[in-house]
Amino acid sequence: MRWVNVTAAVATLAVVVWSVGTGPFLDGLQAVDCGALAAACALAVLTTVCCAWRWRIVARGLGVDLPLGTAVAAYYRSLFLNVTLPGGIVGDVHRGISHGRDTSDVGRGLRAVAWERSAGQVVQAALTIAVLLLVPSPVHGAMPVVAAALVAAAVGVALAARAQRQARRRSLAAPAGAARLARWRTLAAHELRDGVLARRAWPAIALASALVVAGHATTFVIAARTAGATASAAELLPLALLVLLAAALPNIGGWGPREGVTAWAFAAAGLGASVGVATAVVYGVMVFVASLPGAAVLVGAWVARTRSAGALHV
Known about the structure:
Elements: H1 2-20, H2 23-31, H3 34-61, H4 68-84, H5 90-102, H6 106-134, H7 143-170, H8 176-196, H9 202-227, H10 233-247, H11 257-268, H12 273-290, H13 292-313
Helix pairs in contact: 1-11, 2-12, 3-4, 3-6, 3-8, 3-9, 3-12, 4-5, 4-13, 5-6, 6-8, 6-9, 6-10, 9-10, 9-12, 10-11, 11-12
């Protein structure tokens, strides 16, 4: 599956290069300036602290202590790994395993990261749908159907879960596999209730996630202006949200679906596919530079392990 994801990302980039050539990629690299990079780094501080705060809230709901400073450092490390390694989730897996080892419960550490990322993506999707319903965009006409389909799917999932609970209560005995699955569902329900939907948790999670989306969207708008886009911020906002959703798809260090969707969205909006590709390149460079504190965290951890190992040998 990993190779399928990598192949899909490479194929997307190949199609973009075949469509617009290499010029927009080079234009994007040449357009990056110190002002854009400084803005990206400043916005990354805001979004990373908000993400770490969200993670801390979820972990606390699952009964795991996580100091904010530790969470911020681990999140920066996670971001750096995500934008430099294929797949886009390696850093999150590493973050969950590391925190799980620190707390002697790797499973709970991984689940805390999964709930935290899922909660953020749900809020991002909700905000994206709301904006695309209200603001003109290339997909504006299809959004009522998409929104209705999502509501119907959510209702269907809720009814199916209720039917399964009722069937489980009526059943006197169940096979071992079914019982194990039931225990996992019960655990997931408890963690969702205590870690994400608790009264003390969900408002803060929603606020942190909204700030993260706003920070990323602002970074994209700055990237578009740096690449030469002349559209207003109101015109660029729905395009930014579409691209941010695409960036969550399997990729190669962040590259692949982001460039394909940006090229299509800018072309559909009348801004030009070439400008869209240049914008994606500028955004990718800005995100990479903003994630570099994560590299410092990795180097610091490696130095600490090396010194510890040397002290043990002495």
